[in-house]
Specification:
236 residues, UDP-N-acetylmuramoyl-L-alanine:D-glutamate ligase, YefM-like fold, 2 domains, 6-stranded parallel sheet, 7 helices, globular
Length: 236
């Protein structure tokens, strides 16, 4: 089974206005709500590709109920750990440009965290755990490391899409795949990229540090893929 883990999901509330006037009354042209979070997005794409998976993480309040119900309507299996605090709402305001206002991550208690790890005991050898997205401050700096340790104990594989020290700490455990974007990769190695080709050696550094496969996304400019066998720069 493939399990996606989204520890800081959201309702993405998209609002369209014709002409935004700050400090004045504005009326919506349209609005809609979607389940948000990188791991949840992975679950939705996998389902569209007819790959069965289970979406997991933490959900709370009426916002958490909305996300869980929407995923179930799409035929996605879910097993989220219930929390007392409300899952956040992220606002995406479209007015020619897009302005984003991201909500704060919820408070997650030690007891709620323990319930998640109690459930995680269901994973088995050959399962794949996909860790994706930011970790709310309430879970501390080593949450993903703890999940990876449980994966190792069960001989399960994992993929990770995160940044900074969490990504570096994961590499020694040989993830199947890591997927930073080019900004995150530059920040990780304290450098800057002026040409796409400059990304290649830094993607290969992630392989040397333990990753089995690397995808570096570059927004509208495509992506770079590398493994121990081949490297490809795919342009859009």
């Amino acid at each position: 089974m493939i399990y996606t883990v989204t520890v800081n999901p959201s309702i993405d509330y998209i609002v369209k206005v014709e002409d935004l006037k700050l400090g004045d009354l504005n009326r919506m042209k349209a609005d809609y709500k979607l389940p948000g979070g990188k791991g949840i997005n992975v679950s939705r794409v996998l389902k569209q590709l007819q790959v069965e998976n289970t979406a997991t993480g933490f959900l709370g309040g009426f916002t958490g109920d909305f996300i869980n119900n929407q995923l179930l309507k799409e035929g996605i299996h879910t097993h989220f750990t219930a929390i007392e605090d409300d899952t956040r709402i992220n606002i995406k305001l479209k007015h020619g440009e897009e302005t984003e206002i991201n909500g704060l991550g919820p408070a997650i208690t030690e007891a709620e965290k323990a319930k998640f790890f109690e459930w995680l005991q269901v994973i088995q050898a050959e399962d794949i755990i996909i860790l994706s997205g930011s970790v709310p401050p309430a879970l501390g700096n080593h949450f993903y490391e703890e999940v990876i340790t449980r994966c190792n104990e069960k001989n399960a594989e994992f993929m990770i899409d995160t940044t900074g020290q969490e990504l570096l700490a994961a590499l020694e455990h040989q993830p199947i795949l890591v997927k930073p974007n080019h900004h995150e990769l530059a920040e990780l190695f304290e450098t800057t990229f002026t040409k796409k080709e400059e990304i290649i050696p830094y993607g290969q550094k992630l392989l040397a540090l333990g990753a089995k496969h690397v995808i570096v996304s570059m927004a509208g400019d495509g992506a770079f893929y590398s493994s121990m066998i081949r490297s490809t720069l795919r342009k859009r």
